[in-house]
Design goal:
Distance between the termini: 41 Å
Number of helices: 16
Strand order of the largest sheet: 1-2-4-3
Largest sheet: 4 strands, mixed
Strand content: under 5%
Oligomer: single chain
Helix content: 55-70%
Number of strands: 4
Radius of gyration: 24 Å
Shape: globular
């Protein structure tokens, strides 16, 4: 999981719903050596079974009211996701079996938290709050590359295998506790508590190792896909700022994720070792750096509005757009374009159609030089339909 929660909380909670511990033991079958993950510990859960578990979880998500079916944002995320998938295949991170059996499906969640998560079977979720806070597409690619690596390295199934291997240890600890209870009840409690502590610490260590592996593999994937490695550092810095409000201040060895400062340092070291790259993921014949910045600014604004921010925030968005629309001159930077686009959507959401038309006209005038077949031009064409 890229941020501080959701990967374990969703994956493990969902697994408890769909399968009992006994069922999970029954589902663990030996996997051929050719299907082992490229790094780290092996997984004993068959890919087909992991996909079935993921299908059950995804079915519930698709029925959830917070599932977001917005083709504009979905196409934008896919424009980043597909190059990452192609790079992972070229690197050999995704085996032929996983490529065929897993869904490799990304869905959007109407949630304002800065988060994304991976589920069994190749399902990935992206919160609108994440899209709304990232500064550029490279930062979003850093998150998607990380979550993709959780799937390609079989981290969820490896976590299940790790828990299955710990089950005999836990059972043995409880038996020893029962034997000790006949002589000393306090000693029995100590034996059981000690066994649980060892199992919990092992699980935490395993989780942190998976996060480090996903950081390392994910960075390689995004580099091979043509994205800027500085997006990794920028994303970690945003996560660190976001986590300060919710950080309990726990010791590093009691956390499921490495400290953000540690991950930032590792990302900076990898960035220095990486080959020189362009400031953004621009390839010959593709969108220009300016067009990519403008498009991301509008998609980030769209995510903030569709995330149901509340009446007060919608009013502040329209007020900011009013200030920009009243400014003289046609040239607008990416931040101003995003704010103006947010004002249009916020006014539409408030059913203030007259104001929405005014802001939309100003936005089209500022971007009049964009080609109709560019991503920016296509967004403007959709804006006309939204204002119809």
């Amino acid at each position: 999981m890229y941020p501080l929660i959701r990967f374990k909380s969703i994956a493990l909670a969902a697994l408890l719903v769909v399968a009992s511990p006994a069922a999970l033991h029954a589902q663990l079958t030996p996997r051929p050596s050719s299907a082992l993950p490229s790094l780290g510990d092996s997984s004993e859960l068959a890919a087909a079974e992991e996909r079935r578990i993921g299908d059950r979880i995804a079915a519930g998500i698709y029925r959830d009211p917070d599932y977001m079916d917005d083709p504009v944002l979905f196409d934008y995320v896919q424009g980043i996701w597909q190059p990452l998938m192609a790079a992972a295949r070229a690197r050999g991170d995704i085996s032929g079996e996983l490529d065929e059996r897993f869904a490799w499906d990304v869905f959007l969640i109407r949630d304002r938290s800065v988060n994304a998560f991976a589920l069994p079977g190749g399902y990935l979720g992206v919160h609108l709050g994440l899209i709304g806070v990232v500064s550029n597409r490279d930062e979003l690619a850093a998150v998607l590359g990380h979550e993709l690596s959780h799937v390609s390295q079989r981290h969820i199934s490896r976590l299940i295998s790790q828990q299955a291997r710990q089950a005999p240890w836990m059972i043995g600890t409880m038996i020893l506790g029962l034997l000790a209870a006949s002589k000393n009840p306090q000693a029995a409690n100590a034996v059981i508590a000690g066994g649980q502590a060892v199992a919990a610490q092992t699980q935490l260590n395993f989780s942190r190792d998976m996060e480090r592996e996903a950081d390392r593999v994910g960075t390689g994937v995004m580099l091979d896909a043509g994205f800027d490695p500085r997006g990794v550092v920028g994303m970690f810095e945003k996560l660190q700022q976001s986590a300060r409000l919710n950080d309990s201040g726990g010791f590093a060895y009691l956390r499921t994720h490495p400290l953000s400062t540690e991950r930032i340092g590792d990302a900076q070291a990898r960035q220095q070792l990486a080959a020189p790259t362009e400031a953004s993921s621009v390839k010959p014949g593709a969108e220009t750096a300016e067009q990519l910045a403008l498009q991301h600014a509008m998609m980030s604004a769209r995510a903030r509005v569709l995330g149901d921010p509340g009446v007060d925030i919608l009013r502040s968005m329209t007020a900011e757009a009013q200030r920009i629309a009243a400014s003289s001159g046609a040239a607008l930077d990416a931040r101003s374009v995003g704010a103006l686009y947010a004002g249009v959507l916020a006014a539409l959401k408030s059913r203030d159609f007259k104001t929405a038309h005014v802001y939309a006209d100003r936005l089209r005038a500022a971007l009049s030089g964009q080609a109709a077949d560019s991503q920016v031009g296509q967004t403007l064409a959709l804006l006309q339909l939204e204002n119809a």
